[in-house]
Write a structure and sequence with these properties.
- With about 190 residues, the chain is mainly α.
- Among the domains are: about 70 residues, Arc Repressor Mutant, subunit A, CATH 1.10.10; about 55 residues, Arc Repressor Mutant, subunit A, CATH 1.10.10.
- About 40% of the residues lie in helices and about 0% in strands.
- It contains 8 helices and no strands.
- Helix 4 crosses helix 5 and helix 6 packs antiparallel against helix 7.
- The longest helix has 12 residues.
């Protein structure tokens, strides 16, 4: 056979010099002269039928695969040297003991964000576990308690700027401004306005 196949763009997809006869392509025939036999593609070791219950959900939870890659031999996109995209979160499930620890720490005053960072999950995950356990969420407390608001009013009326008062109370100037407005204090126009 001297002609090759043409693809959709009209290009020759297999030039005549690479064509083989039908006997060379057969399953029982050996490899063509000068060519190595092709191997069948390897299947991933983490396919569902390869493992038992310990390997379920591997495709939906890439983070735990990466964490266990060196421990139990599970394939991982990061195990082969590939770098994980930092914009994509790692999915992680908390164990029962970790959920109990999260609940105890939250009840002792730790914030959702702090617990989420420590346990490597999203803060919404922490909140969902607390809801499932029937633990009431804390209400956001004001940044400035009443004694600090009184100090802010005195300093601001004495002539200090919002930024100076905020720095003294370890909060942002916009927090001071909101607290003063709620307290009924008139806010001075900024210089140059």
């Amino acid at each position: 056979m001297t002609s090759g196949l043409v693809d959709l763009w009209g290009r020759l997809s297999n030039p005549p010099d690479t064509l083989e006869t039908a006997s060379e392509q057969g399953l029982l025939a050996g490899p063509a002269a000068g060519r190595r036999p092709q191997k069948a593609p390897q299947r991933s070791a983490n396919r569902p039928e390869a493992g038992g219950p310990d390997h379920r959900g591997q495709h939906s939870n890439p983070g735990s695969r990466a964490l266990r890659a060196g421990v139990d031999g599970v394939d991982s996109p990061t195990a082969g040297g590939a770098v994980r995209d930092p914009r994509k979160p790692i999915q992680r499930r908390l164990t029962r003991s970790e959920v109990a620890a999260v609940a105890a720490e939250y009840q002792h005053g730790r914030s959702l964000a702090d617990l989420a960072r420590e346990f490597g999950v999203h803060r919404r995950t922490v909140a969902d576990h607390l809801i499932r356990l029937g633990i009431a969420r804390r209400v956001n407390l004001p940044k400035l308690p009443p004694p600090d608001i009184e100090r802010a009013v005195i300093k601001y009326q004495a002539g200090d700027s919002l930024a100076t008062v905020g720095k003294a109370l370890n909060v942002d100037a916009s927090t001071v401004q909101r607290a003063l407005k709620r307290a009924g204090v008139a806010i001075r126009p900024r210089p140059g306005r």
